[in-house]
Amino acid sequence: MGLAAPAAAQASVQPAPATVYSMTPERIAASTAALVGLIGVVIGGLVVATGDGGVGTDNGLAGGVVAMMVGLIGMDSAGPL
């Protein structure tokens, strides 16, 4: 009987859960990270698509591939939105 009162008091202190439609700081950070990663993928893809020659010809082909890979990793590490 003596343990019921502390459990009830602790349950009333918990914050209200976030709704599905609310934008929390964590969701904003994850959305921003995914957007920045997507921008990296698009710009890297434009560089790779327009690059003449191969790697080492000063056309930015290797940099474009790296930008695409880092962008994809950044989008994946942003987590679920």
Rg calc:
23 Å
Largest sheet: none
Number of strands: 0
User: Which stretches of 5+ consecutive residues score pLDDT under 50?
Assistant: none
Cα end-to-end separation: 44 Å
Mean pLDDT: 77
Short structural summary:
By secondary structure, the chain is an all-alpha fold. The protein has helices spanning 4-11, 25-50, 61-77.
Structure, described:
The protein has 81 residues and is mostly helical. The protein has a domain at 27-81. The protein is 63% helix and 0% strand. α2 (25-50) runs antiparallel to α3. The longest helix has 26 residues, at 25-50. It starts with a helix and ends with a helix.
Which terms would index this structure?
mainly alpha; 0% strand; 3 helices; rod-shaped; 81 residues
Reconstruct the topology from this structure.
Elements: H1 4-11, H2 25-50, H3 61-77
Helix pairs in contact: 2-3
